[in-house]
Amino acid sequence: MPTERESFKQVTNFGDSALMNKLEYNLKTWFDWAFLRCGAWTNVSPPLPGAYGGDFSVLRRVEDRSFTDGTVYETARKDWVWETNVDYVDVNSTTQNPTSPASVFVNGVLATPEYINYPQGRVVFSDPLSTSDVVTATYSYRNVQVYIADQAPWWNELQYRSFRVDDSHFQQLDNGSWAIGTNHRVQMPCIVIESVPRAISRGYQLGDGAAWVEQDVLCHVLAETRFDRNNITDILRGQFDTSIWLFDNDEVANAGAYPLDYRGEIVDSSKTFPALIDKDTGYRWETCRFMRTQVSEVEAINSRLYEGVVRLTCEVVLND
After folding, report:
1. β-bridge partners, 157
2. According to the CATH classification, is domain 19-36+190-318 in 3.30.2000?
3. CA dist., res. 182 & res. 187, Å (int)
C-alpha cells in the first residue's frame, strides 16, 4: 500500500532552494574555484599594458545615477578574484596565487576607497575625485567568467573586445560598449549555467522516500575565438564521472556566511568552495556526480561569436 501523507516529499519550506537552484549556485561556485586551480586568472599591477596598448591597471570614471559623480571607477575587465589560498602549481612547479585583496591607488598613492565591488570590477570612493585624478589598481581578473542564466532580472548584453584597453571608447562616458553598466555586460569568454526542466527521478532504496535524481544542466559557452570556445568546452566535457560535494546555499545564507556582501565587497575571503563544503565547519549537503556530458554546437548569426553547449547530467540522491 502506498504511504498516505499530507505534505510534499523533500520540501520543508516553499521559500527554500530546491535541487535545480542549488545546482546552479553550486556549479558557479565550483567552476569559479576550479578555473582558478588551473591558473585561469591574470594578475594586474601598474602598469600592465594590453597587447595593443592601453593599460589594464588604469580605471575609468563611471557615470552612474545611483552614485555621486566622481565616486565610481572601473576596470576594463570585470569579475575580480576575491579568493585566497588558491595555490595553483604552474608548469615550473611554482605555487601561484591571484592578487587578492586588491589595492587601489590615486595618482600613485595608496588609497582607501569606501568599498570594492569585485564582481563588477568597480571601486567606490566616499568623496568625489577630480577629473584629473588617475586611479590605478593592483588586482586579478578571471579569464573565464561564469554566470547563472537568471542572475540579473534585467537585460544583459555581450561585450566584445573587453581585452582592448587601447580602445578609445574605454574612457568615454556616453559612447561605446563601456558606456553600458557592468551589471548589464557579459564579457567573454564565459559560461552561462542553466538548469533545464529535464530530469529523471526514481526510488533510491526501500523503506524511505529518498530519490535518485538525474538532472540536466546546460553550460552555454560563449567566446570571441574558436580556441577559447573549444578549450572551455573540452574542459567541461572532460568532467564526466566526476563527483563533487554540494553545499546548502540556504544554510549559507541563513548563517550570513557568503564571502561577498550585497555590494560585492569581500566579507570573508576564506569562504571558498572547499570551505563551504567542509564536513566539519562548512555547509555540506549532498554529493553530485556528472554521469554524462554531451556537447553540441550552436549556429551563431554573428561570425565573431563562437558558441557551444555542454549538457551535464547531474546525479544526486535526495533524502526525504
Report:
1. 185
2. yes
3. 9
